[in-house]
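Repro case for the chain-ordering regression, as requested:
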Amino acid sequence: MAAQPRCIALVGPAQSGKTALLEALMERTGSGERPARSGDGNGESRPHGMSVEPSVATLNFLGDPFTFVDCPGSIEFVHGMQAVLPACDAAVVVCEADERKLPALEYVLRTLEAQGVPRILFVNKIDAATQSPRETLGLLQAASASPLLLRQIPIWQDGAATGFIDLALERAFVYRNHAPSAVIALPEGELPQEKEDRFTLLERLADHDDVLMEQLISEIEPDRERIFGDLARELREGLAVSVLIGSAARGNGVGRLLKALRHEAPALAETRARLGIPADGPALAQVIQTRHTGFGGKLSIGRVLRGAFQEGDAVTASDGTGARIAGLVSLGGGQAGRIASATEGETVGFGRLEGLGTRATFAAGAAAPPEIAAPPPPAPVYAAALRVRDRKDDVRLTSALAKITDEDPGLCVEQDADLEEIRLLGQGEMHLRVALERLSARFGVAVDKDRPKVGYRETIRSAAAGRGRHKKQTGGHGQFADVQIAVRPLPRGEGFLFEDEVVGGAVPRAYIPSVEAGARAHLRRGPLGFPVIDLCVTLTDGASHAVDSSDAAFQAAARLALDDALPKADPVLLEPILAVEIATPSAYTAKATGAVTGRRGQILGFDARPGWPGWDLLQAQIPEAEIWDLIIELRSVTAGVGSFTARFDHRAELTGRPADLVLANGLARRAG
Ligand SMILES: Nc1nc2c(ncn2[C@@H]2O[C@H](COP(=O)(O)OP(=O)(O)OP(=O)(O)O)[C@@H](O)[C@H]2O)c(=O)[nH]1
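-- result from build under test --
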């Protein structure tokens, strides 16, 4: 029986060569075609020179089937990896000997460590390396909680790596571009280094293997089986991380990587154990990605973690949602096309699982399976207000947005009824740009984006009185109402209060609600141009006319009375202040603090970030008006990895120059 397909994630910092590695893997295994990418069709060139979503390819190596999922590395798209990881058997972390990318590498490794995903490090771009692997390892170790095990060392000739020695195998290879490396005799000159590095590797393995420790002490040569057995166990148990070297661009080191995965990567049974899934039970899968084609077809990419699914099977997700598999398709690797069933371990496309999103766990039958935990999507850090170019597209925009947010859990949509604004929120400027390109290319909805508006309010700082007299004598029925009010400030957050202190029926009972309604409506726009809040309006006196008074007349008089009172009550702008939590490597905390204070923000304190050694969590308050591009500055001062979450906290008075600017902008907008 053929082995069950393994599913391996390719992850790592931006531009480290994950896509190049996937292409090299496919080339090496003769799986010709480029990996399938989202709905835009196979082999789409990458318009922005980076991966913006996971792409999946299946291939066969020496009879063993593999699915590789090439995950984006750029910080604005890296969240695409989160939903992929739980269902994978292992991850290959593609990285470089580049100190500047260390925080990004650490971010990826912390994520894998937190989820307990077994991992191998592939140090790429050995063709351009200038450091010895030991130096590289010293650098990279800082990013990994588990010890790194150097398993290969390069053979140098005239400053370039021309081959490598595999320390576990004790065999030397010479690189051949885009072809398997050829075995050569261990070069004499490399022997002392090889002995030293191999001993270091074995010593590390002996930390968890007493027999091996005995053998090393007694200078008995351990057999290969034991060494490979230990390497496989350490990978599975996360005790250590093997480090392989190579060049994806030249196809060097790719065969050894495949062999390591073939022999050492955990099989599905172990992945199930990691996820707490019993071996027995109905067929079970998890959705790692969702794709919508422009023509209404939804494809959920899922890994089968138990059993097998057939086309037409009824399934139930862990939240109880039921669906039917409309069709099954294989992914990439040249054989993309309809298939009748999906077997255990395979990663395939499930057609039309309506109501099931990325991360959904689903099982065959009517019973809801327990959910496989996947980390929640990242909180949005950048927003844009959307404006359709053609008003006719308003309705289509809503359904297209629903589809792109279904595909990409890092995106979300917010409707602000007050400000009459639809906002798209995501992980950064480029993330939103790509999303809008998708809206236009795939759903034919052309959209422009603006900086989101800020929900300013206004209030009053002192008490004042006002009078409104509405009187119209036209033809037959006249209109008459006279209203006297007092306004006074209320504590922040209390909103609006209406009191009636009229005595002796100066305003008839029936018209008191009219005064309140008129006041409420009028307060939607105060003297500064914004909704007025945190004030009490008291009806103190008034007058009516037996024939000419009406609900409308009293509402009009209430408005006039407010127009009289509010400007005398010392109106002031209120701006929303957000409670912000910033996560950053401690080395950049001081710079992150600077980004807060430079935005009229206030630092409340900071702490160590739980589970992230070497990181801080900074608590701050920042005005909403200043936060829209905070992420851009934050990333630029934290080697790209700083992030934040924000929520509304309170409103604060805004005075002086920033207030003048808001008011001037408001006037300019009103003028046209
Ligand atoms: N010198 C050298 N360059 C490489 C190697 N592998 C990849 N590159 C280059 O590194 C750049 C990034 O490669 P990609 O494969 O696109 O990187 P990626 O990790 O998929 O990028 P993202 O998914 O956007 O993070 C490209 O310019 C590649 O040509 C390698 O082995 N050696």
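Ordering looks correct now. The radius of gyration is 32 Å.
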